[in-house]
Amino acid sequence: MAPRAGNPLLNRPCRRFTLVDAAAVLLIAAAVCLFFWRMKTLLDYRWEWQAIPQYFLFRDANTGHLRANILLKGFFTTVKLSIWAMIPAFFLGVVSGIMGASKSRINRIVSSLYVETMRNIPSLVLVILFYYFISSQFLDLLALDQWLRQQPGAIKKIFQILLGDHGTVNTFLSAIAALAIYEGAYISEIIRGGINAVPAGQREAARALGLSGLQTFGAVILPQAVKKVASPLAGQFISTVKDSAIMSVISVQELTFQGMELMSATFLTFEIWITITGLYFVLTFTLSRSVAALNSRASDSGAQ
């Protein structure tokens, strides 16, 4: 039966559950069952899953209200850190990507030097170097933590929600800067590739219409490049969420750090790390499916 014309939703191939899918599900289920069986029989591990919910929410003894506990706080800190880091990373990547795609040899060298340096340094080494030798010294000169300590309670509350309290704000800003510089190198390559992917005929047509170089880039090249790089940029944001876990080495109280602290206090090793794995999966999978839905909607709009 031939696909119907006129509606792209009807032309889209139907995804069916095949025998390969069933075999994959059974294999994963068997691996999970084997893991729990070996934990129970060989290591005689005593599972205490009933202790986990209290580390998400607890009831305040004074007010009787539910409050976020260590795992939920770490989860929101991870989200907050990823969003804040992605903002400067995006602007840094755009500037570097435009420089890398320009005709100026100096601009290309500067962009290439930044990208290759960041991409060939382990992220852990970069975070430690940046925190101990650069960011901590610079932030100490700004004395932001001392200024925040002297502010009224309302301002402290706003800063605590957005960044952190006076005791953690410098560390959090250091993490944002280090993560932004690291992710900006990958965004730079995405932007550069998107600009170079625009056909040369577009530039020639713009020149034929009398547009200047700046007008050509802003009105012709950049809009087309944005469409090409939207999906890779979304994927890079998901990578930023996962890369944020490395900030636990400088004591940023994100999800991984909170998990390590909780594991040290409770010795619920497997329960804690399985829970943290599930939280990261829920966050990244939700983001990836949201991106896929937006891309599908954009494709459907473009096909109509």
Question: Can you give a write-up of this model?
Answer:
- With 304 residues, this protein is mainly α.
- Helix content is 74%, strand content 2%.
- It is built from twelve helices and two strands.
- The chain has helices spanning 8-11, 19-41, 70-101, 105-119, 123-142, 144-149, 153-162, 169-197, 200-208, 213-243, 255-266, 269-303, and strands at residues 57-59, 66-68.
- The chain has a two-stranded antiparallel ribbon with strand order 1-2.
- A hairpin with a 6-residue loop joins β1 (57-59) and β2.
- α3 packs antiparallel against α4, α4 crosses α8 and α8 packs across α10 (213-243).
- The radius of gyration is 24 Å and the shape is globular.
- The protein starts with 7 loop residues before the first helix and ends with a helix.
- Mean pLDDT is 84; it is low at 1-11.
Number of helices: 12
Number of strands: 2
The span between the termini is 22 Å
Helix content range: over 70%
Arrangement of strands in the largest sheet? 1-2
Overall geometry: globular
Regions with pLDDT < 50 over 5+ consecutive residues?
Answer: 1-11
- Evaluate the radius of gyration: 24 Å
SS-based structural class?
mainly alpha
Q: Kindly report the average pLDDT value.
A: 84
Instruction: List SSEs in N-to-C order.
Output: HHEEHHHHHHHHHH
Main pleated-sheet profile:
2 strands, antiparallel
Range of strand content: under 5%
